[in-house]
Amino acid sequence: MPQSRTEARRTIGSYWEASVPQVKLDRQLIGNALFDVAIIGAGFAGLSAALRLAQAGVSVCVLEAEHVGYGASGRNGGFCCLGGTKLDERRLIKKFGLEEARRFVAYQVAGVNLVAQRLDSWGVDADRHSNGEIYLAHRRKDFAGFQAEAAFLKENFGIKARVLSKTDLDAEGYGGPTFHGGLQVPYGFALNPMAYVQALADQVRRAGGKIFGKSPVTGMTRDNDRWQLETEHGFIRARKVVLAGNGYAREDAPKWLHGRTLPVMSSILVTRPLSEGELATQGWTSDTMAADTRNLLHYFRLLPDRRFLFGTRGGIFENAQSLTAMYKRARSDFDEMFPAWAGIEAEHSWYGHVCLARNLTPFVGEVPGLGGVYAAMGWHGSGIAMASISGEKVAGLILGKLQPEDLPVALRRPFARFPLPSLRKLYLQGAYWWYGWQDR
């Protein structure tokens, strides 16, 4: 039975769902329709592409499996920051050369600025805060390298990072027994990602773009000069297609995607509001977004309403037993890192998918061998800024306003297939064991 826009929505129990007005449900695709461009996935990338195309007068639709904000764009920690790759700046230089590494970092900064400009011009109250991001050394040896890292970033990228000692951390409200020092980077800000993605969807609707909810694409075939995208109750025919499902993409639509990405899990808990006394007892009063230096990192921040958000990487399987174990590990880590809050209840907890690629960089461009099909995916856990700007850029490629060489080389390499894709979760388990050993 086709679902109407008033039928009960699927929820994930996140704080973001509870913090915004009820999310709009776009109607389901029923029947057949013709568009110039069809986009799979109504997240930051897909909606950004749709907005740019609709503003240019292109007939465009977005096909979403659930509703806007159900996937990673409404589940993440709200860090609009540098990132989008698992390659640090040194490895970027080694792989692509200094000039291309600089282009890629500048692209990340432009993504952060784009999101800020959108929120300002649209008048969106997204609870923005935090002047940049701080990385906290979870071992003394990690802090020992911060001075050299700050010098490296300034010399090669013009980034003026600030090094904080343990004494500085305590004085500036970064209290915790496992932190040995910090490196603060002055780019990025925190926000409510659900407020942002809903505002982005509203802009798409106002520009004339169509969003179809409850319309997962189940198949994709070539039909003469157009692509045909099948859904449960109809299909779309379009000359161009954008793949923007990221960690929620089906691997059979199109079949080219099979084995080319690795969705991994990230979990988040949010406490009840903390009193000023509770904050002072722990010594954490800063609202700067933070992450530690582990490979299997923790990321956390104090929200404007004085709740504390704490996220972790890890978790492979999505059955009840594994999800319970993942939450227990996260809670144990939280209690160890913030012992004064060990008895504080978490009012919200949820998880989502992070999309990794074998080459550890995103892909923004036309898919080889599939004329007219483009991808904007692979944000490696930092998708707010990177997906937003990349959606605009892939629209620019479709419109002919950009050429592939206008993008950093790091974004132009199509996803390689993982060897023996059916064993990817076993690779991941081995990687987690290795990272856990390295993080000790």
From TrEMBL:
Parts of the chain that traverse the membrane: 33-54
Matching Pfam families: DAO
InterPro entries: FAD-dep_OxRdtase, FAD/NAD-bd_sf
Domain of life: Bacteria
Alphabetic keyword roster: Membrane, Oxidoreductase, Transmembrane, Transmembrane helix
Domain FAD dependent oxidoreductase: 36-395
The protein's name in its UniProt record: FAD-dependent oxidoreductase
